[in-house]
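User: Please fill in residues for this 376-position structure.
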């Protein structure tokens, strides 16, 4: 029996989802699936939605509550009863319904934040949980923040000896004062290049730039998302491979999943795995496991674990790679809260590795319950 701090028999799990990011609806869909997959005989589940305005509300765990409807993706109920982690005990959830006296809901044993992007995957909400002294699933403050910021992510990967595509950093201020110098450094990388905001995701703000004439527009687009922009040499002819990593149990080393591949449908008109290919028209096909030589898969799995450990990740991560035509495997990025619907790559990688969706959710909750609060 897993111990509980709320005095009840079953540990209480607060599933937190929705949020202010553009991935609100996807997060709600994921929450519906995760809540259905949790073993309710073993865990007491409290669904907490964050509205698009940022209010925390007590949500429903009714089956089908977060299904896709004719109206589109589900959203968190904007009129739900407000819920907060009480500041005095930290872990206590308090509900305030309109016109009623706020009442405690009891202590939370573990939070499962199913949020992607800013305010979810970037260390900010993790900081709130650290302050509250409540356990939570996934990477801590620093690993989340570094994973979200491609500039620092690349520095940490380089320090760990991982090979990456050459790139430069272009701050908005530099771009304003010395554009010719930036253009020269980009030319030294060699066209085509990829221009990307340092802290975005879902391919937001990313452009593939074929020649110098198109550079300015791409940098301006990326700067709309982030004053820090990266310009990276294109991995020409590379195949995109992805690998899931899970923290080991009881201090065991992290484990890597089988390797998957995202293949662009050549007839789709996409020149890279952009937002539309990812979420709108299915222009990318996922292959699990990837059809690659055993030595390549082995290299990907090894590097995925090096990347996970380099950032000091906890719980889970998905690490993405370029397999170059010359045979080299280069790391592209890490996601500390990867897409998590049952059809997303991360759960598919683990299902193919022998861990089905309910078992994966259970493993993540147990890992988080096992860890201590504070410095680890
Ligand atoms: N250097 C590169 N060479 C080739 N393709 C790239 C490069 N950088 C990004 N891409 C393409 O753009 C997609 C999104 O870039 P990525 O860095 O993974 O950002 P995000 O965090 O938004 O997923 C990748 O999956 C790939 O298709
Ligand atoms: Mg990516």
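Assistant: Residues filled in for all 376 positions:
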């Amino acid at each position: 029996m897993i111990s509980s701090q709320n005095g009840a028999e079953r540990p209480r799990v607060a599933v937190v989802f929705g949020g202010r990011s553009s991935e609100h609806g996807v997060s709600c869909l994921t929450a519906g699936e995760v809540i259905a997959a949790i073993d309710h005989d073993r865990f007491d589940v409290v669904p907490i939605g964050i509205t698009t305005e940022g209010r925390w509300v007590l949500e429903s765990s009714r089956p089908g509550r977060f299904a896709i409807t004719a109206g589109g993706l589900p959203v968190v109920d904007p009129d739900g009863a407000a819920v907060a982690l009480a500041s005095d005990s930290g872990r206590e959830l308090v509900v305030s319904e309109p016109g009623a006296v706020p009442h405690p809901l009891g202590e939370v044993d573990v939070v499962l934040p199913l949020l992607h992007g800013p305010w979810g995957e970037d260390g900010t909400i993790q900081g709130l949980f650290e302050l509250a002294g409540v356990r939570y699933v996934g990477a801590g403050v620093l690993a989340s923040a570094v994973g979200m910021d491609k500039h620092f992510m690349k520095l940490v990967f380089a320090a760990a000896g991982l090979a990456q595509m050459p790139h430069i950093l272009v701050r908005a201020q530099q771009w304003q004062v010395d554009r010719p110098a930036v253009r020269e450094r980009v030319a030294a990388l060699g066209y085509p290049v990829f221009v990307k905001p340092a802290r975005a995701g879902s391919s937001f703000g990313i452009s593939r730039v074929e020649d110098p004439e198109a550079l300015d527009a791409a940098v301006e687009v990326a700067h709309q998302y982030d004053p820090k922009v990266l310009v990276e040499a294109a991995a020409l002819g590379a195949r995109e491979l992805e690998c899931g990593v899970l923290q080991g149990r009881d201090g065991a080393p992290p484990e890597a999943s089988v390797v998957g591949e995202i293949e662009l449908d050549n007839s789709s008109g996409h020149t890279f795995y952009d937002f539309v290919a990812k979420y709108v028209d299915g222009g990318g096909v996922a292959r699990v496991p990837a059809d690659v030589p055993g030595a390549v898969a082995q290299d990907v799995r090894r590097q995925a674990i090096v990347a996970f450990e380099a950032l000091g990740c906890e719980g889970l991560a998905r690490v993405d790679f370029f397999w170059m035509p010359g045979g080299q495997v280069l790391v592209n990025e890490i996601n500390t809260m990867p897409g998590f619907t049952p059809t997303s790559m991360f759960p598919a990688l683990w299902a193919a590795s022998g861990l089905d969706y309910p078992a994966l959710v259970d493993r993540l909750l147990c890992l988080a319950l096992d860890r201590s609060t504070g410095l680890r």
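For context: DSSP finds eleven helices and 17 strands in the chain.
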